[in-house]
Amino acid sequence: MVTTRPAPPVARVEHSVIRQQGDERVDDYAWLRRKKDPEVERYLRAEDAYADEMMAPAGARRETLYRELVSHVQETDVSAPWFRRGYWYYERLEQGKQYPIRCRKRGSLDAAEEVILDQNTLAAGKAFLSISEWEVSDDGRWLAYLVDDVGYRQYVLRVRDLRTGQDGPESIARVTSVAWAADDRTLFYSTEDPTTKRADTVFRHRRGGSGPDPVVLEEKDERFNLLVSRTRSGEHLLATAYSHTSTEVRFLRATTPTTAWELIAPRVADQQYAVDHRGSRFYIVVNDRGPNFRLVSAPVSSPGRAHWKEEVPERPEVVLEEADAFADQLVLHERQGGLRKLRILDLGRRGKPRQVTFPEPTYAIFQDRNEDFRSRSFRLAYQSLVTPKSIIDVDLRSGAQTVRKRLEIPGGFDPRNYRSEYLHGRAADGTDIPISLVYRLPFQPDGSRPLWITGYGAYGYPFEASFDPNRLPLLDRGFVLAIAHIRGGGEFGKAWHDAGRMANKPNTFTDFVAVTEFLQAQGYGRTERTVASGGSAGGLLMGAVLNTRPDLYRVVLAYVPFVDLMNTMSDASLPLTVPEYEEWGNPDRPDEYRVMRSYSPYDNVAARAYPIMLVRTSYNDSQVPYWEPAKWVARLRATKTDPNPLLFKVKMEPAGHGGASGRYDRLRDVAFDQAFVLTELGLAGS
Residue 298's closest CA among 288, 309, 287? Predict the structure, then answer.
C-alpha cells in the first residue's frame, strides 16, 4: 500500500491459561477486557491511528468514493405516507442532515404538516443518536419514543405532548419495548437487566406519573427475553417471552389495562409460536407439527392448545413465517425455494389463497407500514440486487399491485446495466446452497472480474437479496457481488437454521467455502481477486473460514466480529451469553464444548499465512464487545506468518453494533472500506 509501512501496534502479552473440560486455552490478551483501563484505551486508539496512517495515501481515493456514494443518494426525500387513526404519517430527509424528520398530516395529505420528531434536533451536539421505537397514543396526542445517544443499545423512554411539542417528565432507562393501552394514559414497557441486557420485566406506567411503576410481568428464565406489543386490531396487548427455540405469549385487553394478563399457551421446549388477532379469535403460527410451521386459530375466550383449529397445515416444501390479520383477510408470509412469497387468505369466504408473485430470480420483500386494521391493501417493500426499494400496495381482494414509491437513485443509475442470478453451489455433504449474485453488463465468466462474497448464517435469519446503492461503485468497477445463503440462516426455515447451529455449526463454514470454490470454478472470480466479508455472527464466519481456508481469499473484512467464542460463552454474566446457549452451545457440557472449541476463531489462530484484513469494532458495542476483535487482532499480529496488512478500525466515539448512526458518517466508513479493498486488489485506477 505504501513504500515504507508504519509499524503496527503490538499488544503486550499477559500470559494466562484457562483450564476447562480437560482442555487448556491460552488467553494472553484477556487484559484487553478492562474497558476503563487507560492502557486499553491507548492501545485501541493506536490501532485506529495505525489504520488511518496506512490508508493515508488513499485519501484522495476515499474522497472520490465518498462523493460517488453521495451522488447515488436522494438527499432530500420523503417516504410513502401511511394511515393510522385519522392521520397520514411520513418521514422525510433533507440534504445535509444526518437523520430523518418524522411528520404527519391530519385527515388529508393536503393538510398542514406537523413535525412530531426531528431526530436531527435531538442529535444536536451528539456523535450518535438512535431511535428504536416510536408509538402514538390512540387519540393522536401523545408520542412515546425510545432514544439512545451512546450506541450501547440502552434506550431511554420519553413521552412527548404533540400539541405542545414538549417532552413530559418521563426518562425511564433501559427500555426495550413500549405499547399504549386504549385509554391514552397507560403505557406498558419492558426493561433489560443492566448487566446481561436481557429484557426481563414489564411495567405499567401512568403517563406523567413520577412514582415507582408496578411490575406486571417478570421473566425468570435466563434464556428468555420479554417484550410488549399491541395487535393491529388495537384490541389486545401482547407480552411475548421468547428464546431461540421456544415462545410463550400472554394477552391483555387494551381497554382494561389494570386487569391480569392471560396466557395463550404455556412454553414447550423446541416449540415457537407467534400471535395476531381478529374479532373473536387469535391466529397463531406454530411449529408443533413440524419445522415449517402451520396456522391455527383459537377463541379469545379459551386460546389454549386444546382449542386450536387448523387453518393452514404444515407443508414439507413451504415455510410459514408469519400471518398478518386484517379485518377481512390474512396475509401469509411464506418461504419456498429460499425466497419469500405472499399469499392472501379471505376470512369468512371459501376459496384458495391468492398468490402474490414477483418477477426477478432473486429478490427481497419486507413488510412496510401496515397500521390500519381495516385497510383494503397490504403494504410491502420490494427490492432486489438490481431493483431499488419499491413501496407497493397489494389489493387484499384482487392481489393487484400498485407502486406507491420507488427509491430514486441519482448519479446515472440504470438497472438495465446490471444483472442478478440465483445459483446453487454444492456443499461437501451434497446439500445445495443458494447464491444470489449481481454484476454489471456485459459479463463473461472468465475469472477476470474481482469477486466479493458475503454471508451470515446464524440465528435463523435469512440474508435477503436487497438493494444497496453503496454497492454501485464496486459494480461499476467490475465487481461480481455474491451472497452465500448458507446453513444457520433462515432461507429454508427452521430446518435450515438447525442444520447450521449447535453441533451442526461447522456446516455454516464449509458451506461458505463450497460457495467460494463453486464461484471461482464457474469463472466468477479468481483467488487473487476474491474478497470475503461478514459482520457480527458473520464475523465469526470470517474467523472460522480464515482458520481453515485462508488460501481462498485475497482480502477479508470482518465487522464487529464475534470471535472470542469460548471465553464469551463461558461467562454467564456477559450480555446475551445464556440466551445464546441455544445457538452455539454451553461450554459446561463436554460434547458442546468440543464442537465450539473446534472452530472458535480466537482459539484457533495459528502460525500460517492469512489474507489482507480489515477489522472494525465500536467501543460501546453491547452485542459484540470491542475486546473480542481486539484480542483476535492482537493474536493474529503475534502469530501469523505473512506480511499482509491487518488494519483495525475502532470507533472510540459513541457508535453502536451497526457503526455510525448518521447517514453521511456511514458513507464515510463505506468509502474507507472500498478504498482499502480497491487498493489492496490493485484496482485503484479502475
Answer: 309
Tell me how far apart the alpha carbons of residues 78 and 89 are, in angstroms, rounded to a whole number.
Answer: 11
Q: What is the dihedral of CA 135, 137, 139, 140, to 10 degrees?
A: -30
Which three three-digit cell numbers place residue 101? 424528520
Sequence letter at residue 267: R
Name the pairing type of β-strands 555-559 and 530-535: parallel
**Residue with cell string 382494561:** 256
Distance, in Å, from the CA atom of 178 to the CA atom of 134, rounded to the nearest integer, reads 8
CA distance 531 to 655: 26
Catalytic residue numbers read 536, 621, 657
Residue 339 sits at the vertex; the CA angle it makes with 131 and 674, to the nearest 5 degrees, is 55
Report how far apart, in Å, the C-alpha atoms of 339 and of each of 331, 358, 366, 534 are.
16, 10, 12, 21
In the DSSP assignment, the letter for residue 268 is B
Is-contact 615 637, C-beta < 8 A? no
Q: Which residues contact 381 (CB under 8 A, 6 or more apart)?
A: 365, 366, 367, 368, 389, 390, 391, 392
Count of beta carbons in the 10 Å neighbourhood of residue 629: 32
Contacts of 672 (CB under 8 A, 6+ apart): 55, 62, 649
Across the chain, which distance is largest between two alpha carbons, in Å?
76
Q: How far, in Å, CA of 498 to CA of 460, rounded?
A: 8
Per this entry, what is the length of the chain? 686
> What whole-number distance in Å separates Cα of residue 663 and Cα of residue 123?
13
CA neighbours within 13 Å on the CB side: how many for 146? 19
pTM of the complete model: 0.95
Residue among 8, 84, 74 at smallest CA distance from 46: 8
DSSP for 20-43 reads ETTEEEE-TTGGGG-TT-HHHHHH
Nearest to 653 by CA among 685, 608, 630, 621: 621
Report d(CA 106, CA 52) in Å as an integer.
50
Peptide bond into 442 cis (omega under 30): yes
C-alpha–C-alpha distance, residues 243 and 582, integer Å: 8
Which helix (H) or strand (E) covers residue 236, if one does? Answer: strand 236-242
- Strand 432-440 and strand 294-299: pairing? unpaired
Helix (H/G/I), strand (E/B), else coil: 279: coil
Q: Which three cell numbers stand for residue 162?
A: 404533540
pLDDT, tens only, 538-592? 999 999 999 999 999 999 999 999 999 999 999 998 888 999 999 999 999 999 9
What is the tens place of the pLDDT at every residue in 20-66? 999 999 999 999 999 989 999 999 999 999 999 999 999 999 999 99
Using CA of residue 585, residue 515, residue 319, residue 389, what is the dihedral sign? positive
Asked if 674 and 65 count as a contact pair (C-beta separation under 8 A), the reply is yes
